[in-house]
Description:
This protein is α/β, with parallel strands linked by helices. The protein folds into 2 domains: 2-160 and 301-350, Medium-chain alcohol dehydrogenases, catalytic domain (Quinone Oxidoreductase, Chain A, domain 1); 163-297, Rossmann fold (3-Layer(aba) Sandwich). The protein has helices at 39-46, 106-109, 150-170, 187-198, 211-220, 233-240, 255-264, 286-290, 303-314, 331-339; strands at 2-5, 14-17, 28-37, 48-52, 55-58, 74-81, 93-96, 133-136, 142-143, 179-183, 204-208, 224-227, 245-250, 270-273, 294-297, 323-326, 346-350. Helix 5 (211-220) links the parallel strand 11 and strand 12 (224-227). The longest helix is centred in the middle third of the chain and has 21 residues, at 150-170. The mean pLDDT is 95. The structure holds zinc ion (ZN) (2 copies). Residues 101-102, 104-105, 107-108, 116 line the site of one zinc ion.
Amino acid sequence: MLSYDVTEHGKPLQARLRETPKPTGTEVVVRITHSGVCHSDVHLWHGYFDLGGGKKAYLKDRGLSPPLTLGHEPLGIVEAVGPEVRGVAIGDKRVVYPWIGCDKCWACDEGLSTLCATPRNVGIAMPGAFATHLLVPDPKYLVDVSGIDDAFAATLACSGVTCYSAIAKAVPQMRAEDSIAVIGCGGLGLLAISMMKGMGFQNIVACDIDDRKLEAARGQGAARTVRSDAPEARKALNEATEGRLAAAVDFVGMAPTFNLAYSVLRKGGTYVLVGLHGGEIALPMPPIAQRSIAIVGSFVGTLGDMNGVVELAKAGKLQAPPINIKAPAEISSILEDLDQHRGIGRTVLDFSRIQETS
Ligand SMILES: [Zn+2]
Ligand SMILES: [Zn+2]
């Protein structure tokens, strides 16, 4: 098998040939055809997350060091199965749900692997899908995506499930006339807008610092747009939401994006933090109580969320954001572009044309 690996943080990824894994027990080997590239791959490539104030959370402190095979939006064909595998057969096309827990703790027992203290996430703790082959521990993590475009289906594993889970945290606060803001209109934000539309929300306001992304957001169904870096951004967002901003889903996650949403939310509003751009915030505590504001973190999504987003896509209720299909060998420049916020929508690597190599 061939994989494109981080051999040194921040340096170009290296193509490496390895023995293709042989599945035992309940394991499944998937021959990857499509592999989405996510902004969090940029952080993993750099080797840290920015905590603000000059502080960083390093991967190496979590026991993760190169060589690393990233990639957590895998779609492919089942190529080999262990003797205990039931429910999938060689030749089946599946998306791999990557947010796998330890399978032994209370959270995993309840189907909440995203709350597992010792996750085995694909493309982070386990080798990922920037590769021709992927070893999956159990067929329960394989999701049937028949009828959905292959490249778009791959992106549901992170982009899709992350949006679905984040929106689910905002929805309980929503009233019919309320507005919801999507902050950051990269691949996730654009998909979130279409997902909210698909769920029946009308008053969706898109915020970004890039006019091209705001234009794409209108194409996805945003009713209004706000330049979040404008001097009057708070006033503009307040007017666009008519003083009824019930929820903001922040796909950027920096102090300025938090401050924009937090200052405009109506009483009883919910701020959902998804983006990991990083930084720190300091805010007076009493108003959080007095305004009854909920500040909620949301990290990827559960297998239940994955099934939910796949159902929405199969029902035709999701409009795919623009998807750029690229050759796997371009991965380093794709990560550079993501780091510099160039490009619109999502990027998916096409592994289907790469020949078997070992
Ligand atoms: Zn991701
Ligand atoms: Zn667990």
